[in-house]
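Standup notes, structure subgroup. Blocker cleared on the calcium ion input:
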Amino acid sequence: MELTRASIVNSAVGIVGSFVALFITDLIIVHSPSNQSYIFKFNSPAYAQSVHLRTVDREVLDLIRSPNANTDKIKDALPGRNYKVNLYRDAGFNRWNRVKIDLNRNNRWDEKWTIKDNVIIRQVSSRDDEVYDQKFVLTGNQWQRQ
Ligand SMILES: [Ca+2]
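Run returned:
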């Protein structure tokens, strides 16, 4: 009898644990300069429209600030992430000058960035339909909505 009860409790804990794990993988934590954490559901408009630097922002900024490889394009420059990042160096530029980001890897770009004269502009498709209806400019460690 006790064994049966214990195994029922174990099963229940296992099931609840699975749901918690599923829930956690669907979230991403964004750190603000004040170290306060903002939690957004991954790929929600709130995530895409965040003015705070997200993990993806920090990784892309590291990429575009590092010296260029000898190529004009890198597909999936951050493999293994939930998001896909392509880098482009157009004619006339000696550094990466465009970035495309697919936040949920559904083959529709959620964001396109342009970098010119050290100004970084981020255009966001808040509905993930490649219609870029939001615009931000990087100012210090925050995105300034335009
Ligand atoms: Ca997408």
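Discussed briefly. Residues 102-104, 106, 108, 110, 128 surround calcium ion (CB under 6 Å).
Next: hand off to the docking folks.
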